[in-house]
Amino acid sequence: MAPGERPVALLREALAVEVLLDATWHPALLLGWRHDGPDDARLRVRLDWDGAPRVLWVPLTLVRLPVPGAVPAPRRSSPALPAPHRAAHPPVRRAAPSPPASPLPSPPAVPPAAELRLQVELLKLQAGVREERRRVVVVLEGSRDAGQQGIATALVEHLDPRWARVVTDAPDGTAPLPPPGGILVADRCWCGPAPVAVDELVARERALVAGGVQLVKLWCSVRRPDTDPVAEAALVGATSTPGAPWTVLAADDEPRARLAALRHVLTAVDYRGRDDDVLGPPDPLLVAAVPARP
């Protein structure tokens, strides 16, 4: 990472949180975050303070999600002015506001707090990969429409696009590789067109691993009538090697599968400052390691 550079991520929609100031939790809105170092992340929040809106950068430890049922702390405001005399200012009757012609659209869903914490970890992962000039390829393959696109988007959404990108097409049947310090996500373009030449794929992956490229391979599987589990199992078993093993992800529940995929990538790629409490253990109902062939 260049000296003084601070990766900053901004949310599309603000998230309601609480901030600890003067020993009191105050309601606020989470706008984004930045990564200052391997063990230092700060959150950008907006709150009302002394009767005016303020935007602050605060440590992660001073922010929490709102406690259900808690009474929000009173906001500080300027002293109230004395009310004018009724005779000098008689009441004015105002017409009731007319209802809107059509209901307002619902705001888009805010990402869950668990995914926000994983996004902070992804920023730390990218910083480590760049500092050590490693090359990482995340392979997303599997059943058609098994959520690979959503996983790929979540992986790079808040990363520096100069060093992290998604590829969805390989004209010559071979996905490109990232530069030193880069991360590449291959979205259903790694195995090439069917039928897959298993021996060629295994040989290519072994050469990449020998050249210092780290491969993290996820096979996204869903239970649908148009899937062929026997063919999928044969391909996965034949191309799972010690240096590039497959991990099968049950992707029927797309939101849960996306979080499990992010956790798997963060666990598979080593980086400084990893918070194992945020990652947690893998969900055995969603992820399963495939034994590597000799």
Summed up:
With 294 residues, this protein is α/β, with parallel strands linked by helices.
**Molecular shape:** elongated
Task: Output mean pLDDT.
Answer: 82
Largest sheet: 6 strands, mixed
Percent of sequence in beta strands: 25-35%
Distance from first to last alpha carbon: 38 Å
Mind telling me the C-alpha Rg? 25 Å
Oligomer: single chain
> How many separate helices?
6
Question: Topology of this protein?
Answer:
Blueprint: E1 8-21, E2 24-37, E3 40-49, E4 52-59, E5 63-64, H1 113-131, E6 135-142, H2 148-156, E7 164-167, E8 183-187, H3 198-210, E9 213-221, H4 229-238, E10 246-250, H5 254-268, H6 276-279, E11 287-289
Helix pairs in contact: 1-5, 2-5
3D architecture notes:
By secondary structure, this protein is an alpha/beta fold. 24% of the residues lie in helices and 28% in strands. It is elongated, with a radius of gyration of 25 Å. The two termini are 38 Å apart. Mean pLDDT is 82; it is low at 73-92 and 100-110.
Protein traits:
294 residues, alpha/beta, six-stranded mixed sheet, five-stranded antiparallel sheet
